[in-house]
């Protein structure tokens, strides 16, 4: 049993770093607040007597030794970065639960056969720098380190510069240093299924695949008054057509497909100038990778059609693609047994959000625990999970990890 | 005949203040560059021996005395502010032409019966602060001074603060100090008609009416992954529907109606967050005020429909309305005769852009001269008028003004 008061204190301590006036969290990857949260995490790891290492990509690990010098570690963790004005549970809950688990092991003098490692992955959110799940993706070998170093935010600042500025470009190579026993991650569901089923905790069976992209429409900026309608190449009209196409594809492709345009930037963005340039993102997800591929093809075709109807140029780039993932049976079972032993009502479900576990699944046996999200809300200050539900998920994680670490 | 070399020098001097790398001009109303352009203008007025006054709203006048102490002044001018990354002719050409006219009168020792006043109006563009034609609108009594002082830019800075910061909140009441003989304004056409007709110069007969507005859609920011399509209230989807409605209305309402969405701002604007809030502008113009009113009603109805389809809240505000204007016959004739006397090929046409002349027409007899716009381009660095065409329009303005000032 975890120490509930300490667990809540730890959650509250971290959510004070980058909190917003409306109770949300604004802690973009590699920002000053992200640094402060990382420092907070490192201090707690050190206080707990863990051996800390920071890799070249800022992924930060704390290791608690096992009794068997040859045993591979069980890895537990998530991420401390947040969305712009996001919620306080997304990511942080999983890091804090893993930390609380080793503190409890220390308190109770429990030794495990396998070492336990606790990790904070760099830039899971993919909002400031793309792709999402970037640190775990580099570490798992899905992305090239140098390519990701050169990624820029909207101000043109590179990720490498920011890692160095905040002092989290470590020495350890960003790749597995040994074989892992398994990886477990606790996260808020961010969707409505657990609440709808009346469950206490979720046993996650896998993660949807996804594709994200960026479109740039370039038309002619011109005066909105004396320029006749048939003389216009309006980049925003082409973008609006594409926003509607994304909605249509999301609605119609598969039963669980989702499609979203989350961001758009217009230049010059003046009431009386026909928009000359529009950059927008799009994204699709589905548990069927063939559906994801079909959505990808459809949105590019629709964007091309919109661009040629309007007589604007189009540049297109896929910024992220992740195959769907099925978790290892033995991890699903470990999580399910832990929930059952603790007498929690549980539901097996797939994840509609991406997680660092997506990439970990290519390195080691992987599983996840979901905490209930009230009203399914996430990536918003309205994101909410009761302390009760946070605690249920954390205990499930702890018990599942203990099983795997003893094995 | 104006001094062509000096005229070109004056144009070049001013366009260096706030020039952009791509040959455009970025001189937003009440910015540091606008101040520098105003200082430049004031210096030239003083050097020319004109009596300078700055009114409470920053409108800046230079007066050259007439021979008849009781005669009302002929007013000539335009504006020195620009669009974001706009062109170098829009506004500035009219101010420089008026200035060059009085310099030529000085050189040639010509005295006029009526005084001549040269004016630079504050914030004609309406891009940083709305509405457009704001300084002339206040001066003409179309807007309340205090209300306009409180207008803010997107950073929340008030117009009053900015006027004070740049030192252009003068003492003179922002209203006509006496009766005016007439007002003439030279401006680039900003549309394709003169070029298409092969004309040297345009004789403007009036200005379209227009309506501008701002819409704010407020939905639920949420995660773009685990949030099912039928759980979404996406502010950007409602905005995209409205962008297309504006296009449809512009295309179909009247033969000359134009409709434009020039700017849109999304929050939180992240690739994997369903947009929670979108602010967008729209605008319609037509020479028939009933059509303008109809467009206004249609866009509000369409925005409301889009908002309710998507389940988002809508706030709506009309930020500008200007009735269409017919210029005084005697001003149209003065411009036409001047063009004929100079043996320029001319075309009579209406203006599809708003001008300070819109408001001046409610104060005194008003007319305008248009210079040819290559390819009709404006509000863009690609805006271009040859020196030949600038000079033709300036000479037409000068000759028409001389006729009116002698009368
Ligand atoms: N879990 C989560 O919010 N991850 C961010 C990447 C995504 O959009 O799924
Ligand atoms: N002439 C001009 O560009 N005026 C700005 C206001 C408008 O959009 O018409």
From TrEMBL, chains A, B:
Domain Peptidase M20 dimerisation: 206-307
Name of the protein: N-carbamoyl-L-amino-acid hydrolase
GO MF annotation terms: hydrolase activity, acting on carbon-nitrogen (but not peptide) bonds, in linear amidines
InterPro entries in alphabetical order: Amidase_Cbmase (IPR010158), Bact_exopeptidase_dim_dom (IPR036264), Peptidase_M20 (IPR002933), Peptidase_M20_dimer (IPR011650)
SUPFAM superfamilies given in the database record: Bacterial exopeptidase dimerisation domain (SSF55031), Zn-dependent exopeptidases (SSF53187)
Keyword field: Hydrolase
Provenance organism: Natronorubrum sediminis
One Pfam family this sequence matches: Peptidase_M20
């Amino acid at each position: 049993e975890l120490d509930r008061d300490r667990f809540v204190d730890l959650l509250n301590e971290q959510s004070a770093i980058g909190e917003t006036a409306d109770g949300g969290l604004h802690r973009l990857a590699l920002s000053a607040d992200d640094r402060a949260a990382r420092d907070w995490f490192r201090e707690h790891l050190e206080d707990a007597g863990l051996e800390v290492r920071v890799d070249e990509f800022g992924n930060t690990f704390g290791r608690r030794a096992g009794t068997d010098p040859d045993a591979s570690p069980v890895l537990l963790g998530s991420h401390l970065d947040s969305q712009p004005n996001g919620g306080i549970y997304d990511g942080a809950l999983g890091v804090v639960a893993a930390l609380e688990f080793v503190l409890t092991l220390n308190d109770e003098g429990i030794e495990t056969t396998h070492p336990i490692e606790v990790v904070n992955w760099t830039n899971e959110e993919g909002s400031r720098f793309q792709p999402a799940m970037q640190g775990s993706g580099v570490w798992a070998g899905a992305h090239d380190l140098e390519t990701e170093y050169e990624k820029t935010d909207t101000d043109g600042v590179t990720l490498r510069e920011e890692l160095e500025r905040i002092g989290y470009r470590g020495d350890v190579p960003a790749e597995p240093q040994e074989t892992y026993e398994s990886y477990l991650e606790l996260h808020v569901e961010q969707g409505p299924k657990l609440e709808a089923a009346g469950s206490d905790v979720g046993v996650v069976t896998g993660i949807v695949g996804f594709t994200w992209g960026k479109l740039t429409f370039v038309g002619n900026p011109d005066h909105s008054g004396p320029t006749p309608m048939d003389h216009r190449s309006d980049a925003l009209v082409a973008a609006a057509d594409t926003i509607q196409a994304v909605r249509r594809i999301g609605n119609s492709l598969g039963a669980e497909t989702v499609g979203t345009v989350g961001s758009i930037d217009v230049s010059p963005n003046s009431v009386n100038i026909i928009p000359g340039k529009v950059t927008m993102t799009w994204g699709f997800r589905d548990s069927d990778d063939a559906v994801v591929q079909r959505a990808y093809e459809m949105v590019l075709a629709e964007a091309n059609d919109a661009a040629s109807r309007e007589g604007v140029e189009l540049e297109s780039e896929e910024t992220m693609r992740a195959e769907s993932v099925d978790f290892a049976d033995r991890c699903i079972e470990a999580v399910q047994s832990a929930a059952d032993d603790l007498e929690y009502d549980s539901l097996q479900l797939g994840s509609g959000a991406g997680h660092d576990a997506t990439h970990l699944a290519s390195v080691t046996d992987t599983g996840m625990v979901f905490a209930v999200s009230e009203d399914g809300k996430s990536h918003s200050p309205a994101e909410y999970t009761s302390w009760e539900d946070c605690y249920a998920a954390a205990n499930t994680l702890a018990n599942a990890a203990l099983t795997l670490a003893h094995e």
